[in-house]
Amino acid sequence: MPDNKSPSLDKTIEQVLAQVDGPIPVDEFATRVLAIYPSKAKKPMASIRSHLREEHPGQTLVFLDRHTIVPIRVAMRGVRFRTPHPRGGHPRGIPDRTRV
Where are the domains of the chain? Predict the structure, then answer.
């Protein structure tokens, strides 16, 4: 494990994700993480890949396929969510936005 002054693995992953502006192969991403956060694991690349699959999907990154990831801020760029509103207003007293 790195010394106490180095950032945690999660912080390192977030740091590398901040530098990525599009899809990136998981192996290249893991190489960038290991350059900042050295590991003493027998198979450091497998350790990083496993950590990404178990701890980060849907929170900080999205898997496009088994070998490609994209930061969630990039994947969600421009996404809009529709919320349907009933015509007569909401039953709990929320005002009807179509009449504003």
Answer: 9-75
